[in-house]
Design a protein that fits this description.
Length: 188
């Protein structure tokens, strides 16, 4: 997976500022039950059931179609797991998000059909927009920063400092009509 690159200063700063904004906004005041688990350092930040719920939720935001893979098919959950491992302060955010989804679905989210999952996510978006924003933003980030998606959407990455894409030479003939028309301004 391509997301195991070292964090840049900009990416780390952005994640820290985002987490601080969520703390200040109160979005991290989530159910205490989701943060009181006794996990050892060797345990994953989210257990297998939580990861499955997150996977289904991400796939409702970005489902697969005949041209594009779903969010989970391009390792969206693995991206978030890596992010939580590198910034453990974000774990309560995802634990709370999953707790809200589990609560709304009576812990049956992964067993439900797509229409029911969509209904639950729409209710989450309306009732807890800050919590839903966490799911939406990190799902999109995990998807559209994955290098396997780049060619599918026609994106050609060009690192900073590189020459970038070559431009087509400009065709001066495109200006002929404008050059021959009268000016649209008044000469002073």
């Amino acid at each position: 997976m391509t997301h195991h690159q070292p964090w840049s200063r900009r990416r780390f700063s952005k994640a820290v500022v985002f987490a601080q904004c969520l703390l200040a906004s109160g979005a991290l005041t989530l159910p205490l039950a989701c943060t009181t688990t006794k996990k050892s350092k060797s345990d994953p930040p989210l257990d297998a059931v939580q990861q499955e719920t997150l996977s289904w939720a991400m796939d409702e935001l970005i489902p697969a179609n005949h041209n594009m893979p779903s969010a989970s098919q391009v390792a969206g959950v693995a991206y978030i797991m890596t992010l939580i491992e590198e910034l453990p302060e974000l774990a309560p955010l995802f634990e709370g998000l999953i707790a809200r989804i589990d609560e709304a679905s009576d812990h049956q989210f992964s067993k439900m059909g797509s229409p029911e999952r969509v209904t639950i996510l729409k209710a989450l978006e309306e009732e807890h927009p800050d919590v839903f924003k966490v799911l939406k933003d990190f799902t999109y980030e995990s998807y559209y920063t994955n290098e396997t998606i780049f060619p599918l959407i026609g994106y050609e990455p060009h690192p900073t400092g590189s020459t970038g894409p070559k431009m087509e030479p400009f065709d001066d003939a495109l200006l002929d009509r404008v050059k021959q028309s009268a000016p649209f301004y008044t000469k002073i």
